[in-house]
Structure formats: C-alpha cells, structure tokens
Amino acid sequence: MGRKYKTSPIIEALCEFRFDPSSRWDMTIPGLIYAEVKGTFERTRTAKVLETALIPQEKGIQQQFIASERSQLLRADEKALMQVGEHILVVNRLKPYDSWAEFLPLIQQGFGAYCGVAKPRGVARIGLRYINRVEIPSETLRLDDYFLFHPATPPALSQSLAAFICGVQVAYSEPQSMLKVELTNTTDAESSSAFMLDLDHFTLSPCDPAFDDVFAWIERAHSRVEAAFEACITDQLRNIFGEEK
Known about the structure:
Number of domains: 2
Radius of gyration: 20 Å
Number of strands: 9
Number of helices: 4
Oligomer: single chain
Helix content: 10-25%
Strand content: 35-45%
C-alpha cells in the first residue's frame, strides 16, 4: 500500500459513511443518487445485508443482528460499487486494486452524490478499511520471517500454529478515532499458506469531522493505514509482492 507492488495483496478496500439517523430518508433517495452517478456506476441491484447492533439492556449490552436492504450501484466491471441504505453509504473497490489516486475520486463522487440528494444533518461515523490476503508459497514457515505483527508464543509451544487470530486497537485523538489491526490465518489456499491482514480505521461516536473536514480525515486515515500495513510486514514479504523500486 504505502509502496507500489506488482502483486498487491489488497482484495477489498472500502470507505463507509454513517449519517445522522435523524436525517430525512425515503425510498426515492437511492434512485436519485443513481441518477447522479450512473456515468460511473452503470448497473443497479438490491442486496440484503445482516448488520450487528449493540442494544443496551438492564443486564448489560446485548448483541443483535438486524437485516436491512441496500441498493448497490455497480461499475460495468463490477470491481467498484456504491452501497446505499438508510443513513449509510459504502464505496467499495475490489481487486485488482489500482491505487489511492484511483479509489479516492470514487469516494468523493459517492459522498457528494449522497449529500446532494439526501442532505443529511451530519456524519455520525466514517470508516476506511483495507482487507489484504497474503499468500506465501510455503507449507511450513516462520511467521516472523514475513510479519512483524503476529502472535507471540513461548518457546515451549510449537511454532506451527494450526489457527490463530491476533489483533490490536490503536487510539488517536483530534478527532477521536481507532485503528484496528487484525491478522488471521486461513486454510483455503492450495499449496501455500494464506493470511488475512485487516486494517480498519474509524471515527468514534460522536463523529467530529464537519462536512468540510471529512476528506481531510480520510486522507489522514489512509496515511495511517498505509503506515500500519508497512509496519506489519518484512522485506521478505515485500519481495513476494514484488516491490517496485
């Protein structure tokens, strides 16, 4: 990400906006947004999504799953799309990911179209997330040869980990936000070891950036995600990606 690689590990990048729930909403809004962006996002479809909600209860917080419907506006190659739902906008870029310079204008176009049509009262949350799939052509390997971020195990335990999940959350201020870094292994790769490195940077509630400051925060978030990605990997892994000098 921060550097240029011939084989990018990014399988999906997404930017999510959640808007003030007291804002106006009606079912004509997705169609009006599509009319604004159909020069880029040419096709539409409807998708059902399952979202997690934390509901306060007398005995604590209860997790609930809520089904909702979103309009998906797709580019002709289906490698980029916008998802529009009630008080939510998500702009997705699937592999092969080109560059931030190509992804950012899609985010700007989507945000501008949503705000122009729906006229939300404010932004409640912003998230920028990069999901990386790292495949290493080796059945047996030492994690620290490829990752600087990985689970630490005592010498008495076997270094051949069948399954693991390793994660941290890093807090930032001005505005208050969080960067979640998570590394897990997978078992679906043939003749190689595969890992998912997930970096998710998001604002905390209430979201501080005003409309005019949203993209300043997004640029800063992208720089932090880039830096975190590079901090998590070694030169040996960069060689697998084919770093371009």
